[in-house]
Description:
The protein is α/β, with parallel strands linked by helices. It is built from eleven helices and twelve strands.
Amino acid sequence: xxxxxxxxxxxxxxxxxxxxxxxxxxxxxxxxxxxxxxxxxxxxxxxxxxxxxxxxxxxxxxxxxxxxxxxxxxxxxxxxxxxxxxxxxxxxxxxxxxxxxxxxxxxxxxxxxxxxxxxxxxxxxxxxxxxxxxxxxxxxxxxxxxxxxxxxxxxxxxxxxxxxxxxxxxxxxxxxxxxxxxxxxxxxxxxxxxxxxxxxxxxxxxxxxxxxxxxxxxxxxxxxxxxxxxxxxxxxxxxxxxxxxxxxxxxxxxxxxxxxxxxxxxxxxxxxxxxxxxxxxxxxxxxxxxxxxxxxxxxxxxxxxxxxxxxxxxxxxxxxxxxxxxxxxxxxxxxxxxxxxxxxxxxxxx
Length: 350
């Protein structure tokens, strides 16, 4: 037997978390055998979560990666979780994929305290069942998952050895305004979802919007030296709903003052979908970004990196996992560009 599945773990212990029982309807994307129920340490409810660990995790500490769903989805989203599971299996890491209260349209979801704790609880669930290397616990997500990745980096910097966020939403009040514009890339439904989660508009509930925004908390990640890699397609906001300024402002909050991108340049990039000439990337080639997904801009400062690539609302999971594979908690971020690798634009769900 090559891999340790939840069924094997459950057979060895009495579990009050209640794994899915054989014979129940299959739940995408992986079926009963990887679906567990994790008890929330805040409200006591049972929350669905995907969990996989390699056989060696019974006796040897392995890295753990937390994979996250996008804004309008929940734990049944196939694409993001499947990619994380594939990478975890290839690398011999454990993986958890929490639901964190599903689509971002209700008060418990959308960066609320219950959703934040669900991710912490999922990490602790894995640590309680197999051996996890606590110096190599990672988190990765895109769109709404990118929002939650950066929020977790700020709210619980003590956990993470590395964080990867693709096309993240970083300021909910700003994104509410972005979403209300008559613009080819925006969708007013996102504003309605935020109003449902926060209990009203930004003007009516400013504290809720701030509390659920990564920019409110990200300074704690900077102070703790958490390695953070942010990547977004240059056309997002036009071919996609999250203007690239959200990514730049998170990078600016993590970067040294001299390395930050000005608001004037951010505005030009968002408006023209082009990088001002002085900022155009002229660095070494990166095998994870080829001719079709070329790098337009890359900034690296302190323990943060931002990559602006040719693409829309998309990520590059191979590049993200390559970055995570080199990060160790307590060490400075390792931004080594490998000589080998391959990646490509991976569209993110809504």
